[in-house]
Amino acid sequence: MKEPVVIHFENTTKEKIDKLSRELPTDIHLVRYKKPTWKKKQKVSAIRAYRKTDIFDTLYDQGYQVLEIESGFGSIRPNVFTTKCD
Questions:
Q1: What is the reported pLDDT for 86?
Q2: How high is the mean pLDDT in each 10-residue block of the chain (86 residues)?
Q3: 29 CB burial (10 A radius; 0-12, 13-18, 19+)
Q4: N- to C-terminal Cα distance for the chain?
Q5: What's the CA gap between 17 and 10, in Å, rounded?
Q6: pLDDT number for residue 2
Q7: What pLDDT does residue 63 have?
Q8: Planar angle of CA 20, 24, 29, nearest 5 degrees
Q9: SS (H, E, C) 21-63
Q10: Can you tell me the distance from the alpha carbon of 67 to that of 16, in angstroms, rounded to the nearest whole number?
């Protein structure tokens, strides 16, 4: 069974994620991706998922080409992390 994949921040940067790192869960990944038809445009999003393969599979199924998945952000255990609107 695939773990859920949640886009936490869309159109973000590595610098923004670094600044918020103390407030984010450790299962957050910074992902660069694009549609094959886009010439130069790319999206960068902070996506929560347990495994990188879950992110790749989800984006690939939606028609995106994954360019990079970077980990190592966040400092809160995922099982105790809650969003502000919960």
A1: 45
A2: 80 93 92 93 93 94 95 89 64
A3: buried
A4: 25
A5: 11
A6: 58
A7: 95
A8: 95
A9: HHHCECCEEEEEEECCCCCCCCEEEEEECCCHHHHHHHHHHCC
A10: 19
